[in-house]
Amino acid sequence: MNTRLPHGSIPILSSEKIDVRYVAKLARIALTDDEVERFGTQLADLLTHVDALAQLDIASVSATAQVIESRNVLRDDLPRPGLDRDVVLAQAPASQGGFFRVPRIIAVKGEAS
Amino acid sequence: MSDLLRGTAVQVAAAVNARQASALEVTEAMLAHVEGVEPGVGAYLTRLDESARSHAARVDRRVRSGESLPLAGVPVAVKDNMCLDGTRTTAASKILAGWVSPYTATAVQRIIDAGGIPIGKSNLDEFAMGSSCENSALGITHNPYDPTRVPGGSSGGSAAAVAAHEATIGLGSDTGGSIREPAAFCNLVGFKPTYGRISRYGLIAFASSLDQIGPLTRTVADAALAYEVMAGYDPMDSTSVQRDVETTGKPLPGDLTGVRVGIVREFDLAKLGAEAASLYQRAYGDLQKLGADLVEVALPTAEYGLATYYLIAPAECSSNLSRFDGIRYGLRVEGDDVTQTYEQTRAAGFGPEVKRRILIGTHALSSGYYDAYYVRAQKARTLIARDFAKAFEACDLIACPAASTPAFEFHAKSDPYSMYLMDYYTIPMSLAGLPALSVPCGWITPAGGTVPMPMGLQLTGPLFAERALLGAAHVYEQATRHAGAHAPQIGGAR
Amino acid sequence: MSGTTGAAAAGYEAVIGIECHVELKTQTKMFCGCLNEFGGEPNTKVCPVCLGLPGALPVPNLRAIEHMIRSGLAFEAAIPAFSKFDRKNYFYPDMPKDYQISQYDMPLTQGGVVRYWLEDGTIKECRLVRIHLEEDTGKSTHAGSGDGRIAGSAYSLVDFNRAGVPLMECVSEPDIRSAEEAVAFLEALKRTFVQLGVSDVKMEEGSLRCDANVSIRPIGAHELGTKTEIKNMNSFRSVQRAIDSEIARQVALVTSGGRVIQETRGWDEVHATTHSMRSKEEAHDYRYFPDPDLPPLEVSENTVGWLRVELPESVIRRFTRYTGEYGLNVQQATQLIDNPSLAEYFDACVALSENPAQSVNFVLGDLSRLANETGVAIYASPVVPKHVAELIALLDGKTINSKIAKDLLERMWSGGGSPKAIVEREGLAQTSDPGAVAKFVDQVLAANGDAVAQYRAGKTNVLGFLVGQVMKASGGKADPALVQTMMTQRLA
After folding, report:
1. Which residues of chain B have a CB within 8 Å of the CB of A18?
2. How many CB atoms within 10 Å of residue B35?
3. By CB distance 3.0 to 4.6 Å, which of A21, B159, B283, C311 could disulfide with B182?
4. Per-residue pLDDT, A109
5. How is domain B2-253+401-485 classified at the CATH fold level?
6. Do B356 and A39 touch (CB under 8 A)?
7. ipTM, interface predicted TM-score of the complex
8. What three-state secondary structure class fits B472?
């Protein structure tokens, strides 16, 4: 099978530059201006390598999410012992009265991305 | 006792089961050896001396009560991305530097139940992202064959530990080559079974659809032994396969008569340099001498493996690593509000390679790019798996290099892409979920180097063909005995 | 005036779609073996999986998947042969993995229709887009602001007991036209889920949470107006009030020349208004992708067939049977349907007696009263449907009158057994023999000369007194109709 498309008929991948600030916001990683610059260059470089994939004719190919085809690997609705709260909260950066304590939440659930 | 430290897992277990040595004696000797060589190797992030002694005592009680344990008293290095109850488990990241796991990974539990003794938690590239161990935020690991060189990665700590005889079995995880490449760099057998053969429960996820646990050992027989102990369906992991594991009931075969070994047309050995090319040619020739039929096979899409992998693995990792947010465990850098806390915690907690992969993976999944990147990569993955399936119609195994070069010096790979290229030969097999291993196949003195460094031959089998793969590797190993040609500079003196 | 009536007066109609989250009733959580129970000490029903600890992996609960399929089938939804789990990525402190396992493009059920009724008995339909399966989050309590609200809070406390509880999200088409319909639709969902045993549907415990998408358009228009999403409604009553308030707000806005903007609005129970919940955050980008930890689901036709066969009669079918075939009024039918064990008991009484009218009288009347008084459920009392049917037969055959029937029920309730046996044993059968009745009548007429005189003087209302005297004299056994006839004749 010829897996290559004729030149020029390929959807462009990396021509749109990666918006590092937007992506870092989504990923909740604070970046300095230097990092934005450095990562921007490095990631754009990596994306040019990834562009090679545009050469593959994949129109009629199915996507592989999992390489081993299994189905319906389920469990019965039966309880299993969990963890002691003391053990769990001992690892928490902050806790109070049996709860995890977290800094104030500004975003409304389902609103923030 | 020092013989046992240099012995194989098969020999140690036999001696302990026969009560020629106690597990505690083996353990004490091992702990003393680790104490001596560890300053020069740096294989371990956390040493488990006390729990090793108590595990050993338990094994001795079981042996005295008449049990025969497949890994009785065998010292094991556990890669520090596998959970062990009550033990610091860090994934070599600052974000988890103080985290104590409250549970044990299934694979590690099976090793313990079989009589294995965890000696320490071994170093790795942070969250298993890397090919040299240099991405560890918590320690430097040296290659025991040349301490100026890296041990490979990401399972570099386990590889260095076994090479320096600081453990008999090393547990590694392989996402794109993280067992096979360090095995090649450290003169070991490194075995990545079929995806799903060994439970991932308790393995800190990097890329869920690719991650697979496997052993690093000094012999193929030891790799088979460790594999059989760990393999099998685990109800805690929906992706572990429900299929019987062939066990070593029968001895590994004596020759390769009738075995068709595929040589990949697209893998141009000349690119590796003349010395490496002739080394691999000799390895293929040795397979032929042992009775194998060499056949040329085509993997036309294998060259897209790297691009495919560097979309799929970061995409999955971007989601898998979201949970490191400073809320329930691990590092927290507190900000004015929770969002700032996330951002500062993750900025301080993750190293640059991890950030790069999270960022590129987030980009690949984000609105407007998903189809162009992620879906396209998944489709390329389909094509790569298909190529292998077609190749295995013409052959039983595929032989190729495990890594492009021998172990390199620290800081030799400064830009990310040159490091990614180290996985060129191992990534396609990972994408296809295939079982693959690296077995020592000779030595090369790198340009500028002073001592010979080991090279690895990679053998790959069809899905679930672990038994045939291990059998062929055993025949090759026994016939060639490349591993014994040189001793490590550290940890190898008798 | 409700928002809808106000809207109609102004020439507008409301277009409403509902999205609701329903916690499934299972013993354990969706992806781990922790108990799925409401309440309890915080963080005591947790494990590595539902806390999102490093290395932990999800394994789906078979029972929850069966609940989903049964729920879909009850609303005639399609059950696709192939379905999968996806990850919805966003950060929130009560979401342990900072992604939620959900279903994006291949949910377990697709389409379907909810048929429901209004208080006047009108039957309405609302199509479903889909029902999909996901995991619930933990719960955050906001502290330091004085009123427990998120705004102005200094910090939050998180409990993960609820994290990982199986949750189905039902999304309706915008087929609803009023707040009243929205509530009736939700009640219909609730009845079905309770009947199927897939959820407790307790809004006060948060096992049902719902949002409404509300827009208005000129009556007769086909295009949809700009919608707002209403959140924070935590009772059926607040759903009704919030939607009414939002319709009124939109109509007032549009009729005064304004424009509705697409936004999320929170219902404020205290001030009875909705308010904008806009935040400065960037647009949603949930980065859905198939969860690599979870193999896809395949639901065979065989499985669907079995689950379909095992479904109970649908709630709407029961409603039309009660109101149509049985002639019950809407209130009676609703009362029975809302109490499935009572409805089952009633059905058994009807099956044995073939008299729905009398059955409903006993079940919702005397039996319910006795149940209330004694604190014993009807189905748990000694009065079995067979005995109720016997009682109805005794009444229908005029062996007893309704007064005796009432007494009998009381005795059956306290363990009396078969009413027929009691009647025979104690000679309680109604006296319809004219000779015997005439004896009592004559006796009473003789003893009550004054009353007879009054009657004949035109005070005919003493007839009731005289009949009562006869009933008393007969020990309640005289046929009251016969007594009445005979008395009237004698007095004429």
Report:
1. 359-360, 363
2. 12
3. B159
4. 53
5. Amidase signature (AS) enzymes (3.90.1300)
6. yes
7. 0.96
8. helix
